[in-house]
């Protein structure tokens, strides 16, 4: 069936998408490893045209095969097959795949979990690339995967994050995006040690991902330990401070009156105007000034358009 299907595709009788019909074959109908490798090879080659639908079919084909193996419905272990493993690895590492991780995050996660069991170094490298290339849709899932992997070997995670942070083509993502879930989920002492070894150049990369000061449930002012360390050690660096301020509300969603949200942020910031760390005090001043400017911009709009109380 596989050879005949590919022959019809090459003859332009049917499209490459027809290979998706092999995704759910189970039991006695399951593809042999040789047949699976043939189908996957054809799909991976075709997906290099950056066809999002073919990329999705590849993810589904690999993911469902692994699921069938896990459930005992397919007697195979494709990642122990050197030819299939190489295909899967190359597919996951390719730019066209990395750029589509967000749209295929479920099977990406399932495939990476299995890959982590057999080759954690490769799994971590793919995850680090996916963090910056996979888009906002993938960020939370990829971050959780890296956090899970850090419990096994945190050095691998740190090394791969360093690689993408200072990669000429990918490092810019850390200058415009915030990865709060990841950096605040890693053991803080390890991150501090990492910062001590790499200095201000690393602080500049993670400053946007730090939590800003807040009030706890008892309305007591709190500064996250990692934030405190970075602003104590590197807060006088202009780029570190600017990145920290820029990332403060970068992933925050607002509902209702913007002016009310900003008034609340002003009240919170006032608790830190006399903080012992100069960087925190300066942040509080900037937070208040910025919020006041936004209130001025929104007041007339809210009163004249949607909010008539």
Summarize the structure.
65% of the residues lie in helices and 1% in strands.
Report the mean per-residue pLDDT as an integer.
93
Shape, please? elongated
**What's the helical proportion of residues?**
55-70%
Distance between the termini: 69 Å
Q: Which blocks of ≥5 consecutive residues have pLDDT under 50? A: none
- Briefly note the structural class of the backbone: mainly alpha
How would you write the strand order of the largest sheet? 1-2
Task: Report the sheet-strand fraction.
Answer: under 5%
Rg = 24 Å
Order of helices and strands: HHHHHHHHHHHHHEEHHHH
Largest sheet: 2 strands, antiparallel
Structural notes for this entry:
The chain is mostly helical. The protein has helices at 2-10, 33-47, 52-70, 82-93, 95-98, 105-118, 120-133, 136-150, 154-165, 173-176, 180-183, 188-198, 200-206, 225-234, 238-247, 258-270, 278-306; strands at residues 214-215, 221-222. The protein has a two-stranded antiparallel sheet with strand order 1-2. Strand 1 and strand 2 (221-222) form a beta hairpin. Helix 3 (52-70) packs across helix 6, helix 8 (136-150) runs antiparallel to helix 9 and helix 12 packs parallel to helix 14. The longest helix is centred in the last third of the chain and has 29 residues, at 278-306.
Keywords:
mainly alpha; 309 residues; elongated; two-stranded antiparallel ribbon; 1% strand
């Amino acid at each position: 069936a596989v050879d005949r299907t590919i022959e019809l595709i090459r003859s332009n009788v049917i499209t490459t998408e027809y290979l998706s019909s092999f995704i759910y074959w189970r039991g006695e109908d399951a593809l042999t490893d040789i047949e699976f490798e043939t189908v996957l090879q054809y799909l991976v080659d075709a997906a290099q045209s950056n066809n999002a639908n073919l990329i999705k079919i590849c993810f589904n084909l690999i993911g469902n095969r692994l699921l069938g193996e896990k459930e005992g419905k397919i007697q195979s272990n494709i990642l122990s097959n050197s030819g299939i493993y190489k295909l899967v690895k190359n597919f996951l590492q390719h730019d066209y795949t990395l750029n589509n991780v967000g749209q295929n995050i479920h099977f990406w996660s399932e495939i990476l979990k299995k890959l982590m069991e057999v080759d954690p170094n490769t799994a971590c490298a793919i995850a680090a690339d996916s963090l910056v290339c996979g888009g906002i849709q993938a960020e939370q899932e990829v971050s959780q995967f890296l956090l899970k992997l850090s419990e096994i070997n945190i050095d691998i995670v740190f090394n791969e994050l360093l690689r993408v942070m200072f990669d000429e083509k990918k490092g810019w993502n850390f200058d415009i995006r915030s990865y709060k879930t990841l950096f605040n989920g890693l053991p803080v002492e390890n991150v501090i040690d990492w910062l001590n070894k790499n200095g201000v150049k690393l602080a500049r990369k993670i400053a946007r991902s730090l939590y800003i000061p807040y009030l706890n449930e008892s309305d007591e002012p709190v500064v996250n330990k990692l934030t405190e360390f970075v602003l104590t050690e590197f807060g006088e660096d202009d780029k570190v401070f600017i990145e920290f301020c820029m990332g403060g509300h970068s992933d925050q969603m607002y509902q209702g009156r913007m002016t009310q949200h900003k008034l609340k942020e002003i009240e919170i910031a006032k608790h830190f105007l006399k903080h012992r760390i100069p960087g925190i005090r300066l942040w509080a001043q900037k937070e208040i000034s910025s919020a006041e400017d936004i209130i001025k911009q929104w007041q007339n709009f809210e009163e004249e358009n949607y909010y008539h109380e």
